[in-house]
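## Example record

The block below lists the input lines for one assembly entry, exactly as stored, with component labels intact.
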Amino acid sequence: MKNILIVGGTSDISKEFIKSTYLDNNLYITYRDKKKFLEFTKDLNCEKNINNFFIDLSDLESIDNLNYSGFNNFDAVIFFAAIDIIKPFKLISNDDIKNSFNINIISSIILIRNLINYKLLNNLSSVVFLSSISGIKIGPSGHSLYSSTKAAINGLIMSLANENSKRGIRFNAIAPGLIQTKNLHDENTRIISNEDYDRYSMKYPLGLGKTNSVISLINFLISDESKWLTGQTIVLDGGFTIN
Amino acid sequence: MIDKDDFLDKFKSIFEEEDISKIDFSTEFKHLDEWDSLTALTLITIIDSNYKKVLTGENIESANTINDIYKIILS
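Predicted C-alpha coordinates for the full assembly:
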Protein backbone atom coordinates (compact mmCIF):
# COMPACT_ATOMS: atom_id res chain seq x y z
CA MET A 1 0.00 0.00 0.00
CA LYS A 2 1.48 3.30 -1.14
CA ASN A 3 0.92 6.82 0.13
CA ILE A 4 0.13 8.88 -2.94
CA LEU A 5 -0.38 12.63 -3.17
CA ILE A 6 -2.62 13.66 -6.04
CA VAL A 7 -2.59 17.33 -6.92
CA GLY A 8 -5.75 18.29 -8.79
CA GLY A 9 -8.38 15.67 -8.03
CA THR A 10 -11.17 16.71 -10.33
CA SER A 11 -9.73 16.45 -13.81
CA ASP A 12 -11.16 13.65 -15.94
CA ILE A 13 -7.85 11.81 -15.95
CA SER A 14 -7.20 12.17 -12.22
CA LYS A 15 -10.71 10.94 -11.41
CA GLU A 16 -10.14 7.79 -13.45
CA PHE A 17 -6.78 7.31 -11.77
CA ILE A 18 -8.33 7.71 -8.32
CA LYS A 19 -11.07 5.21 -9.16
CA SER A 20 -8.49 2.68 -10.29
CA THR A 21 -6.27 2.98 -7.25
CA TYR A 22 -8.12 4.10 -4.10
CA LEU A 23 -8.87 0.60 -2.85
CA ASP A 24 -5.21 -0.39 -2.81
CA ASN A 25 -3.48 2.78 -1.68
CA ASN A 26 -3.67 5.70 0.74
CA LEU A 27 -4.55 8.78 -1.24
CA TYR A 28 -4.09 12.43 -0.36
CA ILE A 29 -5.98 14.51 -2.87
CA THR A 30 -6.07 18.25 -3.41
CA TYR A 31 -8.88 19.97 -5.23
CA ARG A 32 -10.07 23.49 -5.88
CA ASP A 33 -13.71 22.74 -6.65
CA LYS A 34 -15.10 21.13 -3.51
CA LYS A 35 -18.57 20.52 -4.93
CA LYS A 36 -17.18 18.75 -7.96
CA PHE A 37 -14.89 16.67 -5.79
CA LEU A 38 -17.63 15.60 -3.36
CA GLU A 39 -19.93 14.72 -6.23
CA PHE A 40 -17.23 12.48 -7.57
CA THR A 41 -16.29 10.78 -4.29
CA LYS A 42 -19.79 10.23 -2.91
CA ASP A 43 -20.22 7.11 -5.03
CA LEU A 44 -16.82 5.70 -4.20
CA ASN A 45 -17.51 4.90 -0.54
CA CYS A 46 -13.92 5.69 0.20
CA GLU A 47 -13.61 7.58 3.50
CA LYS A 48 -11.00 5.17 4.73
CA ASN A 49 -8.40 5.55 2.03
CA ILE A 50 -8.91 9.10 0.82
CA ASN A 51 -7.75 12.19 2.65
CA ASN A 52 -8.67 15.31 0.80
CA PHE A 53 -8.10 18.98 1.18
CA PHE A 54 -8.75 22.22 -0.60
CA ILE A 55 -5.92 24.15 -2.24
CA ASP A 56 -6.25 27.02 -4.64
CA LEU A 57 -3.05 26.60 -6.62
CA SER A 58 -3.26 30.13 -7.96
CA ASP A 59 -2.79 31.32 -4.36
CA LEU A 60 0.88 30.55 -3.77
CA GLU A 61 0.92 31.54 -0.11
CA SER A 62 -1.67 28.91 0.71
CA ILE A 63 0.75 26.23 -0.47
CA ASP A 64 3.31 27.34 2.11
CA ASN A 65 0.58 27.36 4.73
CA LEU A 66 -0.55 23.76 4.21
CA ASN A 67 -0.57 21.51 7.24
CA TYR A 68 2.51 19.51 6.25
CA SER A 69 2.68 17.78 9.62
CA GLY A 70 -0.67 16.16 8.79
CA PHE A 71 0.82 14.35 5.82
CA ASN A 72 2.36 10.90 5.79
CA ASN A 73 5.56 10.36 3.88
CA PHE A 74 4.75 9.94 0.22
CA ASP A 75 5.79 7.16 -2.14
CA ALA A 76 4.39 9.00 -5.12
CA VAL A 77 3.24 12.51 -6.02
CA ILE A 78 1.23 13.11 -9.17
CA PHE A 79 0.47 16.54 -10.57
CA PHE A 80 -2.70 16.64 -12.61
CA ALA A 81 -3.83 20.24 -12.13
CA ALA A 82 -3.50 22.63 -15.06
CA ILE A 83 -5.42 25.32 -16.85
CA ASP A 84 -5.32 26.10 -20.53
CA ILE A 85 -6.40 29.66 -21.26
CA ILE A 86 -7.08 29.52 -24.98
CA LYS A 87 -6.49 32.97 -26.42
CA PRO A 88 -4.48 34.54 -29.21
CA PHE A 89 -1.19 35.70 -27.73
CA LYS A 90 -1.90 39.39 -28.28
CA LEU A 91 -5.02 39.21 -26.10
CA ILE A 92 -3.62 37.49 -23.03
CA SER A 93 -3.87 39.55 -19.85
CA ASN A 94 -1.39 39.79 -17.00
CA ASP A 95 -3.86 37.83 -14.89
CA ASP A 96 -3.98 35.09 -17.52
CA ILE A 97 -0.18 34.86 -17.34
CA LYS A 98 -0.14 34.84 -13.57
CA ASN A 99 -2.89 32.24 -13.23
CA SER A 100 -1.44 29.93 -15.86
CA PHE A 101 2.03 29.96 -14.39
CA ASN A 102 0.89 29.78 -10.77
CA ILE A 103 -1.42 26.82 -11.33
CA ASN A 104 0.55 24.93 -13.96
CA ILE A 105 4.11 25.22 -12.67
CA ILE A 106 4.97 27.62 -9.83
CA SER A 107 2.64 25.95 -7.32
CA SER A 108 4.22 22.59 -8.19
CA ILE A 109 7.72 23.99 -7.62
CA ILE A 110 6.75 25.37 -4.22
CA LEU A 111 4.96 22.20 -3.18
CA ILE A 112 7.86 19.93 -4.15
CA ARG A 113 10.34 22.18 -2.40
CA ASN A 114 8.26 22.04 0.76
CA LEU A 115 7.77 18.27 0.56
CA ILE A 116 11.53 17.87 0.24
CA ASN A 117 12.29 20.29 3.07
CA TYR A 118 9.76 18.65 5.38
CA LYS A 119 11.25 15.28 4.41
CA LEU A 120 7.92 14.03 3.15
CA LEU A 121 9.25 12.23 0.08
CA ASN A 122 10.38 8.68 0.81
CA ASN A 123 13.57 7.31 -0.64
CA LEU A 124 12.80 5.71 -4.02
CA SER A 125 9.59 7.71 -4.34
CA SER A 126 8.35 8.86 -7.74
CA VAL A 127 7.01 12.24 -8.83
CA VAL A 128 4.96 12.39 -12.02
CA PHE A 129 3.70 15.42 -13.91
CA LEU A 130 0.94 15.48 -16.48
CA SER A 131 2.52 17.55 -19.22
CA SER A 132 1.40 17.75 -22.84
CA ILE A 133 2.77 17.46 -26.35
CA SER A 134 2.00 21.22 -26.46
CA GLY A 135 5.21 22.90 -25.42
CA ILE A 136 7.21 19.69 -25.78
CA LYS A 137 6.74 18.70 -29.41
CA ILE A 138 4.22 21.16 -30.84
CA GLY A 139 3.05 24.73 -30.23
CA PRO A 140 -0.57 25.15 -31.26
CA SER A 141 -1.93 28.65 -31.89
CA GLY A 142 -3.83 30.06 -28.94
CA HIS A 143 -2.06 27.91 -26.35
CA SER A 144 1.07 29.99 -25.74
CA LEU A 145 0.73 30.10 -21.95
CA TYR A 146 -0.17 26.45 -21.60
CA SER A 147 2.73 25.45 -23.86
CA SER A 148 5.25 27.59 -21.98
CA THR A 149 4.23 26.15 -18.62
CA LYS A 150 4.43 22.60 -19.96
CA ALA A 151 7.90 23.29 -21.36
CA ALA A 152 8.89 24.57 -17.92
CA ILE A 153 7.97 21.20 -16.38
CA ASN A 154 10.36 19.55 -18.81
CA GLY A 155 13.27 21.62 -17.47
CA LEU A 156 12.22 21.30 -13.86
CA ILE A 157 12.14 17.50 -13.78
CA MET A 158 15.60 17.16 -15.31
CA SER A 159 17.26 19.23 -12.59
CA LEU A 160 15.15 17.72 -9.82
CA ALA A 161 16.00 14.23 -11.05
CA ASN A 162 19.70 15.03 -10.70
CA GLU A 163 19.46 16.73 -7.33
CA ASN A 164 17.46 13.92 -5.78
CA SER A 165 19.08 10.91 -7.42
CA LYS A 166 21.13 9.94 -4.35
CA ARG A 167 17.90 9.09 -2.54
CA GLY A 168 16.53 7.39 -5.62
CA ILE A 169 13.68 9.86 -5.93
CA ARG A 170 12.59 10.00 -9.56
CA PHE A 171 10.91 12.80 -11.51
CA ASN A 172 9.19 12.18 -14.83
CA ALA A 173 6.48 13.72 -16.97
CA ILE A 174 3.91 12.34 -19.37
CA ALA A 175 3.22 14.38 -22.49
CA PRO A 176 -0.05 13.11 -23.93
CA GLY A 177 -1.69 14.05 -27.16
CA LEU A 178 -5.42 14.59 -27.31
CA ILE A 179 -7.22 12.33 -24.85
CA GLN A 180 -10.92 11.63 -25.23
CA THR A 181 -12.20 12.96 -21.91
CA LYS A 182 -15.68 14.11 -20.98
CA ASN A 183 -14.44 17.70 -20.88
CA LEU A 184 -13.43 17.47 -24.49
CA HIS A 185 -17.03 17.14 -25.59
CA ASP A 186 -18.63 19.46 -23.07
CA GLU A 187 -20.05 22.53 -24.76
CA ASN A 188 -19.30 24.70 -21.71
CA THR A 189 -15.63 23.90 -21.60
CA ARG A 190 -15.40 23.97 -25.41
CA ILE A 191 -11.92 22.57 -25.58
CA ILE A 192 -12.59 21.47 -29.11
CA SER A 193 -15.42 21.81 -31.64
CA ASN A 194 -17.00 18.80 -33.33
CA GLU A 195 -15.44 19.83 -36.59
CA ASP A 196 -11.98 20.08 -35.04
CA TYR A 197 -12.56 16.75 -33.35
CA ASP A 198 -12.91 14.93 -36.67
CA ARG A 199 -9.97 16.83 -38.09
CA TYR A 200 -7.74 15.89 -35.15
CA SER A 201 -8.79 12.23 -35.16
CA MET A 202 -7.42 11.91 -38.68
CA LYS A 203 -3.98 13.07 -37.54
CA TYR A 204 -3.55 10.36 -34.91
CA PRO A 205 -2.28 7.15 -36.54
CA LEU A 206 -3.58 5.12 -33.58
CA GLY A 207 -6.66 7.31 -33.09
CA LEU A 208 -7.29 9.72 -30.22
CA GLY A 209 -6.05 8.76 -26.77
CA LYS A 210 -7.95 6.96 -24.06
CA THR A 211 -7.68 7.87 -20.40
CA ASN A 212 -6.54 4.36 -19.46
CA SER A 213 -3.43 4.67 -21.64
CA VAL A 214 -2.33 7.60 -19.48
CA ILE A 215 -3.21 5.75 -16.28
CA SER A 216 -1.18 2.71 -17.33
CA LEU A 217 1.86 4.93 -17.83
CA ILE A 218 1.33 6.67 -14.49
CA ASN A 219 1.15 3.28 -12.78
CA PHE A 220 4.34 2.24 -14.48
CA LEU A 221 6.12 5.46 -13.48
CA ILE A 222 5.14 5.16 -9.82
CA SER A 223 6.11 1.48 -9.66
CA ASP A 224 9.50 -0.14 -9.16
CA GLU A 225 9.28 -1.36 -12.73
CA SER A 226 10.51 2.08 -13.81
CA LYS A 227 13.25 2.43 -11.18
CA TRP A 228 15.91 3.28 -13.79
CA LEU A 229 13.79 5.93 -15.50
CA THR A 230 14.15 9.54 -14.38
CA GLY A 231 14.18 13.10 -15.68
CA GLN A 232 12.20 12.17 -18.78
CA THR A 233 9.20 13.61 -20.53
CA ILE A 234 7.51 10.68 -22.20
CA VAL A 235 5.44 11.45 -25.29
CA LEU A 236 2.22 9.41 -25.36
CA ASP A 237 0.31 10.42 -28.43
CA GLY A 238 -0.66 7.47 -30.64
CA GLY A 239 1.92 8.58 -33.17
CA PHE A 240 0.61 12.12 -33.65
CA THR A 241 4.00 13.84 -33.48
CA ILE A 242 5.76 11.36 -35.76
CA ASN A 243 3.01 11.53 -38.36
CA MET B 1 -27.48 47.55 -25.13
CA ILE B 2 -24.64 46.97 -27.52
CA ASP B 3 -23.31 49.96 -29.45
CA LYS B 4 -23.39 48.85 -33.08
CA ASP B 5 -20.47 50.97 -34.28
CA ASP B 6 -18.36 49.92 -31.36
CA PHE B 7 -19.16 46.29 -32.11
CA LEU B 8 -18.07 46.75 -35.72
CA ASP B 9 -14.81 48.39 -34.59
CA LYS B 10 -14.10 45.49 -32.29
CA PHE B 11 -14.83 43.05 -35.08
CA LYS B 12 -12.48 44.91 -37.42
CA SER B 13 -9.75 44.85 -34.77
CA ILE B 14 -9.29 41.09 -35.18
CA PHE B 15 -7.75 41.73 -38.60
CA GLU B 16 -4.25 43.08 -39.08
CA GLU B 17 -3.73 42.88 -42.82
CA GLU B 18 -7.19 43.45 -44.28
CA ASP B 19 -8.34 46.81 -45.66
CA ILE B 20 -10.76 47.40 -42.80
CA SER B 21 -12.34 50.43 -44.48
CA LYS B 22 -14.10 47.92 -46.74
CA ILE B 23 -15.54 45.94 -43.84
CA ASP B 24 -19.14 46.59 -42.81
CA PHE B 25 -22.06 44.64 -41.39
CA SER B 26 -22.75 42.95 -44.71
CA THR B 27 -19.20 41.65 -45.08
CA GLU B 28 -18.97 37.88 -45.40
CA PHE B 29 -16.10 37.69 -42.98
CA LYS B 30 -15.20 34.06 -43.61
CA HIS B 31 -14.32 34.98 -47.20
CA LEU B 32 -11.67 37.48 -46.10
CA ASP B 33 -8.08 36.39 -46.79
CA GLU B 34 -7.04 36.76 -43.19
CA TRP B 35 -9.87 34.66 -41.77
CA ASP B 36 -8.48 31.45 -40.27
CA SER B 37 -8.59 29.50 -37.02
CA LEU B 38 -6.52 32.13 -35.22
CA THR B 39 -8.73 35.06 -36.27
CA ALA B 40 -11.72 32.90 -35.30
CA LEU B 41 -10.19 32.42 -31.86
CA THR B 42 -9.48 36.14 -31.64
CA LEU B 43 -13.13 36.85 -32.42
CA ILE B 44 -14.30 34.38 -29.77
CA THR B 45 -11.99 35.93 -27.18
CA ILE B 46 -13.00 39.52 -27.98
CA ILE B 47 -16.73 38.71 -27.92
CA ASP B 48 -16.36 36.79 -24.68
CA SER B 49 -14.41 39.51 -22.87
CA ASN B 50 -16.56 42.41 -24.10
CA TYR B 51 -20.05 40.93 -24.26
CA LYS B 52 -19.83 37.89 -21.96
CA LYS B 53 -21.11 35.71 -24.76
CA VAL B 54 -19.29 32.54 -25.72
CA LEU B 55 -19.50 31.94 -29.45
CA THR B 56 -19.45 28.27 -30.35
CA GLY B 57 -17.92 26.71 -33.43
CA GLU B 58 -21.48 26.06 -34.59
CA ASN B 59 -22.37 29.77 -34.15
CA ILE B 60 -19.51 30.80 -36.37
CA GLU B 61 -20.24 28.06 -38.87
CA SER B 62 -23.86 29.16 -39.22
CA ALA B 63 -23.00 32.86 -39.63
CA ASN B 64 -22.14 34.41 -42.98
CA THR B 65 -22.03 38.16 -42.40
CA ILE B 66 -20.81 40.25 -39.51
CA ASN B 67 -24.43 41.14 -38.89
CA ASP B 68 -25.16 37.44 -38.29
CA ILE B 69 -22.63 37.44 -35.45
CA TYR B 70 -24.14 40.67 -34.10
CA LYS B 71 -27.57 39.01 -34.02
CA ILE B 72 -26.17 35.98 -32.19
CA ILE B 73 -24.75 38.25 -29.51
CA LEU B 74 -28.06 40.07 -29.11
CA SER B 75 -30.01 36.82 -28.80
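The helical segments of chain B are 4-12, 37-51, 57-62, 66-74. The interface with chain A takes residues 37-38, 41-42, 45-46, 49, 54, 56-58, 61 of chain B (CB under 8 Å).
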